[in-house]
Amino acid sequence: MSELPYIRCLGCEEAIFDPTRAVCPGCGRCPVCGLRRVKPETKDCPECELPYCTCCGRCPKCAGLRYAEIDTPCECGHPHNAEKLADLIRYESVVGAESRPFDWGCSMVIIALVTVILLILAALR
Question: In this structure, which of 26, 79, 96, 115 has its CB flanked by the most CB atoms within 10 Å?
């Protein structure tokens, strides 16, 4: 049985957590789309009344995770969307992540627009 790798949050860039969690325990964002799913931010553990770790989101006394009560999927489908979860693990794992493929479509549109603008400026001279 293989364990899921841990991921680093793309929002706060500090917390490292299980990718199947609905939100980052550090900042409360969805790890796939970045939507902040918690308001207001919880600073202290309700059980121990100690501040959560700003890096990992754990209580130093009971080791409870901040935002552990949030288990409903995000609007984007995380963590129930298997394809998005697999991409998150593949590209954002703390250890062994692959490089994201480059989106050539957007680059080609930008190059085409710059070329058209340059041609228009050259024609106006």
Answer: 26
What are the residues whose beta carbons fall under 8 Å from the beta carbon of 115, sequence distance 6 or more?
Answer: none
- Token code pair at residue 102: 């480059």
Residue numbers in the chain where pLDDT is lower than 50: 1-2
Same domain, 27 and 84: no
Residue 1 is predicted with a pLDDT of: 34
29 and 60 assigned to the same domain: no
How many domains would you assign to the chain?
2
Please tell me the predicted confidence (pLDDT) of residue 93: 85
Task: Let me know whether 31 and 72 are in one domain.
Answer: no
Q: How far is 40 from 53, CA to CA, in rounded Å?
A: 17
Of 2, 54, 45, nearest in space to 26 by CA: 54
